[in-house]
Specification:
Layout (H helix, E strand, L loop, with lengths): L1 E4 L5 H12 L3 E6 L14 E4 L15 E6 L7 H15 L3 E5 L11 H15 L2 E5 L3 E2 L10 H4 L2 E2 L9 E4 L1 H13 L7 E2 L6 E2 L1 H12 L5 E2 L3 H10 L4 H13 L13 H6 L6 H7 L1 H4 L3
Parallel strand pairs: 1-2, 1-4, 2-3, 4-5, 5-6, 6-10, 7-9, 8-12
Antiparallel strand pairs: 9-11
Helix pairs in contact: 1-5, 2-3, 6-10, 7-8
Length: about 290
């Protein structure tokens, strides 16, 4: 069975491709430039050059494909890209689309969940067989939201609501879920929300990171202005800093879909999801303070 994968060179996509290859599934990955350096280089993965912003470039991508995995970056035209891909896949006669989404996807909301919600609504409306995967917050985000913990010796997050409890899931568990539903029947029409095992405050996240790496990583909660000044002074791009500040300003108890824990990882894959301590242990070299 040939599976078509978009977003195959990103954090989630590469993990999904790895899991599919472990399952001995044939993979065709859509890339924007076949000549560019890629984490797929040297793997037994067919590369197909196309641009999701130009659906006409997808002609030929679906030949022999049974199931497609839809994952796109969080950009302004995300919904348009995904809807164009869905329409092209339906026209080509693809049997099933597995869409990578986000917890709380809602076409009437704003921001990231709006794009996912619009794409989900369109996908369901086509009548094609589908599976939607809505993970909670990635543990891997801890490696990029703050300056290097090894340099800062702390988890620095501009929280508007420090008492907030959220769920974090390891990308590897999400990839396990997605590779499973891409490879097996019996999941059509399902919406899965892969989550980690616990609801935690960011203070508890810091405690568990500390336990995992065997060194203290305290939580620091600067004001939004202080965080912005410090990050810009450290050379972080303005857009990334602005996005982080805006994101955490909206996270409040009772108003975020991240306050959820499910059994979906275990239900789909047969194994329990990894904990923050597990994540810290496997990324100790990056997380351990100097």
């Amino acid at each position: 069975m040939l599976i078509l994968v978009t977003g195959a060179t990103g954090t989630v996509g590469t993990a999904v491709v790895d899991r599919l290859r472990e399952r001995r599934q044939a993979v065709r990955a859509i890339v924007r430039d076949r000549s560019a350096p890629s984490p797929l280089a040297g793997l037994d993965v067919e590369l197909f050059q196309a641009d999701l912003r130009r659906p006409e470039t997808l002609e030929g991508a679906f030949g022999g494909v049974h199931t497609a995995f839809l994952l796109t970056p969080s950009v302004d035209d995300q919904a348009a890209m995904e809807i164009g891909f869905i329409d092209a896949a339906v026209a080509a006669g693809i049997r099933t689309i597995v869409k990578h989404s986000a917890v709380g996807a809602d076409a009437s909301a704003s921001g990231l969940v709006n794009a996912h919600g619009r794409s989900e609504r369109h996908l369901i409306g086509t009548g094609i067989s589908y599976v939607i995967v809505r993970p909670t917050q990635f543990m891997q985000n801890l490696l990029s939201w703050t300056p290097s913990i090894a340099r800062a010796s702390a988890l620095v997050i501009p929280l508007a609501s420090p008492e907030l409890r959220i769920n974090m899931v390891d990308v590897q568990d999400v990839a396990d879920v997605e590779a499973t539903v891409l490879s097996e029947d019996g999941h059509a029409g399902r919406i899965y929300t892969p989550s980690g095992p616990d609801l935690l405050t960011y203070g508890e996240v810091a405690e568990r990171l500390s336990a995992g790496v065997g060194a203290p990583i305290p939580l620091q909660v600067p004001s939004a202005d202080r965080y912005r000044d410090d990050m810009l002074a450290a050379g972080y791009p303005d857009a990334a800093v602005t996005g982080t500040v805006a994101y955490f300003s909206t996270l409040r108890q009772g108003t975020t879909a991240l306050g959820i824990t499910t059994q979906d990882v275990e239900e789909v894959t047969g194994h329990r999801p990894g904990s923050v301590e597990d994540f810290a242990l496997s990324h100790a070299d990056s997380l351990r303070p100097a």
